[in-house]
């Protein structure tokens, strides 16, 4: 039967972190069902490797690392999306635009259109709020590669989100009575 | 480097609705997996495999009850929560934080809907609040008054779902606790109940 001690600990991890893990999974997969499957996989892996978690305060980062690895493994079975498949026309996007709320549909659409490895870096930057250096260390990647991918991916996000805001600002003001 | 747009996108990234019952489904999956692993490790008969399945379901129910259903069984009283918040309030006067207007707070601990959005509000992480981590919003007020809103993921039995108009008062402090969106909120205000009510985003309809 299940080890009672590990059972309680994994239950504690689920209770405290299932929401943020699910949200991260949703941003990675872009689908409710895939996000739930991925979240389940994360906690299954966490249960098997619970002994590796030395510091409960680091649990969230540890779960995020499992999440990224599980996502990459799952994606390797599918056809990879190449960076060249995605057009990233970012040259005309003002850096300081988009001051208001972010359009959720556009945001997820922009994420879905990113190649997996770009999406991973973007989410580490925006969701985990990692620095360039932290991303490079955790992905064991040169920091120049991180900066390059982030720069292109951020431009891609901004271009889609800015397009949304621009369209909205061109509409007549419907709120005034 | 992060700019305002980055901050907006970061905040928006966390705005994902979580399906209802997700935690329960995850726990059931975990217990079933562990039971299957145990059954698979030993060569067992179909009868035993079925028995493991039953035990798995029972254990899952137990874990769900322990971690989700009976979390209020920590037996933390409302008064205990108020005392802890006032103690933290008295200690944490000059602690640094992030301006809410410059850096959105983590979505897990949002500002309450029933507390006024006040310019100059700051937020900071909260450690060891009755054994929990969370967030504190420091709210400026009129004539140097100040208030802090403590937000932690903790269930406390018997709490209302909105702040009381008649707060607990002690030594120039007003405090009230309520439950909202599965989170515990405690508002501590320096001043009398009139100043306290000034921080609330109250409905315009008469309150009984």
What does this protein look like?
- The complex is a heterodimer of chains A (177) and B (208).
- Chain A has 177 residues and is mainly α.
- Chain A contains seven helices and no strands.
- Chain A has helices spanning 4-29, 32-48, 59-76, 104-112, 116-126, 132-139, 143-170.
- In chain A, helix 4 (104-112) packs antiparallel against helix 7.
- Residues 1-8, 79-99 and 170-177 of chain A have low confidence and may be disordered.
- Chain B is an alpha+beta fold.
- Chain B contains five helices and seven strands; from the N terminus they run H-H-H-H-E-E-E-E-E-E-E-H.
- In chain B, strands 1-2-3-4-7-6-5 form a seven-stranded antiparallel beta sheet.
- In chain B, helix 2 runs antiparallel to helix 3.
- Chain B is globular, with a radius of gyration of 22 Å.
- Residues 69-73 of chain B have low confidence and may be disordered.
- Chains A and B meet through helix 1, helix 2, helix 5 and helix 7 of A and helix 1, helix 2 and helix 3 of B.
